[in-house]
Amino acid sequence: MNASPNIDLHTHSTCSDGTLTPSELIVHAAAAGVRVLALTDHDSTDGLENAASTAAALGIRLVPGVELSAAWRSQDIHVLGLWIDPVDPALRSLLKCQAQLRRERMIGICRRLQIARLPGDALLAAVQAKGGIPTRSHLADAMVDAGLVARKDEAFRKYLAQGKVGHVRNDWPALAQTIGAIVGAGGVAVLAHPGRYRLSGGARRRLLEEFTQAGGGALEVMSGANGAQHVETCTALAIKYGLAGSVGSDFHSHEVAWNPLGRSLKLPDCITPVWRGQLL
What we know:
The protein has a domain at about 100-160. It is built from nine helices and seven strands. It has helices at about 20-30, 50-60, 90-115, 120-130, 135-145, 150-160, 175-185, 200-215, 230-240; strands at about 5-10, 35-40, 60-70, 75-80, 190, 220-225, 245-250. It has a seven-stranded mixed β-sheet. Strand 5, helix 8 (about 200-215) and strand 6 form a beta-alpha-beta unit. The chain is globular.
């Protein structure tokens, strides 16, 4: 294996849907033995400055990152941008548009919930009070706090998932546009958690073909709590399409015991690490 447990290139803070502030995330990562960490909040780079100052103090190598939402054939796809320039004008313009799309989507979701005789207005106020980029995870938390559901997954299953009363699609930019913004900002585009998308084998191959043709550079081979079978599948795809491999916990909360920072995230030896040539 050519990766070590001290590299984690997919994490979230309170600037999107994580539960730790950027500085708290870095402190938690240091305590867990992580030495190289990417902060990849959803459609936001707002936490990078605070994360960088704490990382410098604790001797952690911070990789500036972001997780962008994109559209591919009516499917929502997430693309990580690693080693980006967070002040790149084109990237900042895209992030501004993404944030507005998320705000409009949240209003639309809560309006649909209100029509369905749920407290949509109150839920919207609770999400907006959090600040930052509004996500469905924030809304699920608000539904738990309001006693509408017992757990976040129940909120998605009953109200927010596709086909449910609170589902509203977002008009995300095309996959190629998203990859272009990352590459234009000096970053590496990484297809996040490829096993999570509901795609047939053929569709997944077409996605990888278009991802690579658009300038995508890496595949998240090890992500979250994925098992050995997932790693084998992603390894084969990375080799087939000439992509580097990345590793990331997709950490959101220290309360999720099965997905901690610092867990073993190792790439097979046959995969070129996305950090090769970056971590000098």
